[in-house]
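Record 1 of the preview.
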Amino acid sequence: MDFSLGEELEAVRDLAREILTDRVTPERLREVEVSGGRVDEQLWADLATAGLLAAVLPEPDGGAGLGMAGLCVLLEEQGRRVAPVPLWPALTGALTVAAYGTEAQRSRLLPGLMDGTSRLTVALEEFGPAEPLTPRTAAVADGAGWRISGVKAVVPAPAGARHVLVTAATESGPGLFLVASDATGVSWESAETTSHDMSAHLTLRDAPAERVGTPGDEAAAHLVRNAFVALAAVQTGVAAGALAHAAGHLREREQFGRPLATFQAVQHQLADCYIDIEAMRVTLWQAVDALAEPFDAGSADRAATVAKWWATEGGLNTVHRVQHVHGGIGVDTDYPVHRHFLWGKQISTTLGGAGADLERLGALLTGTAVAS
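->
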């Protein structure tokens, strides 16, 4: 299987790397971390102006049609620089709207996302052990529309999001619904995350909603599956960026008259990091390939879950090792590597940790249901 990037994806990677390297400085990160929404709005606008937000969306909707492959390239570069912009929730949500939304929903939501003037987020998690596709939040039909009630936990990047894609239970199974962020019956409670991002708990009390997709379709599963793969892409970049910091640090620091990088114990630590990152990257691109045509939901679910497990387990191991080899400087918040550690920790628990991923994979392989 050939996982090399083609010319279009290489162009996305190179442009994203150039913009993020130029804009995401330690000084700028410190500014954003004390802002209200914790989102670098200027960087978001720059990415939109460069066409990187539009690149992932289908050509009929005005994009370049690069899909999840283009998004994962962009997300890996974001992770390398720990850039504070809500790419994974906004763009995985947009891809699901593009795939399952009505023409009216697509025309209302996607142009603003592509030009950077508006965005959406996703509400997939709940308090307790609920699986994303077995939500306790419930939706009931109300004439031509729907009403939703329930609580969603740790909704990412609510600042600036005009709409939320919410998974909810219906009589025909899990459904996906579009809710205006300021609709009647919608309330938000801010919650800071480990990675300094600002999330929020979302309470819905008979809130009006539009269904995305139709009863019995794959809209909710599509979003959750893509979210797994997107998180794996971000984490791959986070781990690679952390390893780069470690390599630079160990080349420069000396002990007993020798660079730390020449000590065998340190070399073994970084070799383990490299192996984990390569495994993360291989399973990530295997999942991206499984999402492409010809599409098989079972194969895609298994590949996405494997990629998420490697990102959760391997990514967390990598940022721990990198923190360790930095010694005391690793916990100095004036030194940039601590952000990779915090992002790695946060991503490793998003939509469930490694244990939850293994349980999901076991259920997929045996054809049993995951306990909720």
